[in-house]
C-alpha cells in the first residue's frame, strides 16, 4: 500500500465523478473529521484534568455541574464510552443490512440516555464521543478508520498522563 498519503486514504470513489472543486471541498471536510476524531477526546481529557483554566468559565461550570454525580474519573468515563461506541459500531456492521444501522442508532441513544440517567457518564461526554464518532465515520477507508481508533486511544492516554505539555528543545 506504500507510498500513500492521508489525502489518498481520504479519497472516496464518489469524488471521481464530481467536479474538482466539490471533491476537494468534501475531502477537506473529511480531513477536518479526522482531525476532530483524533484530537477531541484527548483534548477534552487533557483540558479537564490539567488545564481547566483554559476553558471558558460558563462551559467549565457546566462541565463541573454535570460531572458532580459521576463516580468515575474522566479517563475511565471516556474509555467506557469509547468502548461502548466501538461495540455498537461493530454490532451494527455485523447485523443484517436492514436492521443494522437502526440498531446502531437506537442502541447508542438508549445506552447514552441510560448512562446519563444513572450518573455513570456526563452529558458533555456524550457530545464529545458522538462528534468523535461522526469524524471517524467520515473516513472512507476502513483500515484507516481502525488505525485512527488506535491512535485516538493513544491520544486519550497521553492527555490523561501529561495534559497539553509541550517540551521545547533548546
Flag low-confidence runs.
none
Radius of gyration: 18 Å
What's the total count of β strands?
0
**Helical/strand content category:** mainly alpha
> Helicity range of the residues?
over 70%
- The count of helical stretches stands at 7
Compute the average pLDDT.
87
The largest sheet, given as strand count, sense and whether it forms a barrel, is: none
Q: Please give the alpha-carbon distance between the first and last residues.
A: 38 Å
Q: Which descriptors would you attach to this protein?
A:
170 residues, mainly alpha
Description:
The chain has 170 residues and is mostly helical. The chain is built from 7 helices and no strands. Helix 4 (74-94) packs antiparallel against helix 5.
Amino acid at each position: 500500500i506504500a507510498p500513500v498519503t492521508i489525502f489518498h486514504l481520504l479519497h472516496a470513489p464518489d469524488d471521481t465523478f464530481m467536479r474538482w472543486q466539490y471533491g476537494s471541498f468534501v475531502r477537506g471536510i473529511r480531513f477536518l473529521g479526522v482531525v476532530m476524531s483524533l484530537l477531541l477526546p484527548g483534548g477534552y481529557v487533557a483540558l479537564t484534568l490539567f488545564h481547566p483554566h483554559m476553558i471558558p468559565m460558563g462551559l467549565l461550570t457546566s462541565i463541573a455541574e454535570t460531572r458532580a454525580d459521576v463516580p468515575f474519573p474522566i479517563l475511565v468515563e471516556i474509555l467506557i464510552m469509547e468502548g461502548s461506541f466501538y461495540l455498537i459500531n461493530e454490532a451494527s456492521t455485523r447485523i443484517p443490512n436492514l436492521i443494522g444501522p437502526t440498531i446502531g442508532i437506537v442502541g447508542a441513544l438508549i445506552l447514552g440516555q441510560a448512562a446519563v440517567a444513572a450518573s455513570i457518564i456526563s452529558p458533555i461526554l456524550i457530545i464529545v464521543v458522538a462528534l468523535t464518532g461522526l469524524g471517524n465515520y467520515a473516513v472512507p477507508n476502513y483500515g484507516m478508520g481502525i488505525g485512527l481508533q488506535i491512535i485516538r486511544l493513544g491520544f486519550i492516554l497521553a492527555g490523561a498522563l501529561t495534559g497539553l505539555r509541550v517540551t521545547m528543545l533548546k
